[in-house]
# Entry
Amino acid sequence: MDRVLSGMQSSGKVHLGNYVGALQNWVKLQDKYDCYYFVADWHALTTGYNNPAVLHDSVTDLLVNFIAAGLDPDKCTIFIQSRILEHAELHLLLSMITPLGWLERVPTYKEKQTELSERDLSTYGFLGYPLLQTADIIMYRAKHVPVGIDQVPHLEISREIARRFNNLYCDVFPEPDALLTPFPKVPGVDGRKMSKSYGNAIYLSDSAKEVEQKIRTMTTDPARVKRTDKGDPELSPVFQLHKIFSTKEEQAEVAEGCRTAGIGCIDCKKVLIKNVFSVLEPIWTKREALLADPDRLHAIAEKGNEKARKVAQETMQLVRKAMGLY
# Structure
């Protein structure tokens, strides 16, 4: 089977946006491809280098959510980036051949600096993020990387770096292709894109009470001040979540109820709460079992680390030979 590689940064708890945008798709892909999924803990240091102590809990939370969301260690390889030291070696070697201008033109370089303006991101680690990301991908000679259409430019630099290495030395790395996946925009409780940095997320680790409270207090169409006011469902973040979690029939009913003031916002949210719970309850059950059995979680991670390390070592032998370093 073709190999697929993807990772998730351990910079905080996993939220519904991560689940809908990535984990759900990863679960489907594990039945079709040779999938490698990793916890990107080194990547978390590119913006959170001043507080590495939070990494341990974040790594554990990510592993738990990977498996609770449906990733099967018998079908895919789950590993931790920092446990495979070859990633750092390849990152270093790629830094020797990558023009500085390539890194400076990455779309998120300026965007993230603006978004996280309270942090000092004038570091090589932050600038070189795409190099580490490239090392992650090409280390496993992955053919596909699942991305949304807006993320294709981010993958292009990995393709360019792999191409440059192959041209300078010899063909070691396949140029990874984008495995285009529809990633719906998941709104947070304040209407903006769900994000840890915005503090507007519903987390997989939230309790039922916390999830219900967050949805009940979500913003809706500002025109609906009173129960009898008519509204436009397209202006309501709650309805955008209905499009993801509710059936077509339920979407039609709450939309019509909003336009005609046939239902109140509380009634609309009750339907959404029910449907979000139906997604989260199986995850909560699996999370509880995993957290109660840390030895099992450790064994899963070690098994994945060992398998990933073997592939990484094979790749680095090819790299050193190509560069005349062995």
Summary: The CA atoms of residues 152 and 178 lie 7 Å apart. Strands lie at 3-9, 34-40, 76-80, 144-147, 177-180. The mean pLDDT is 93.
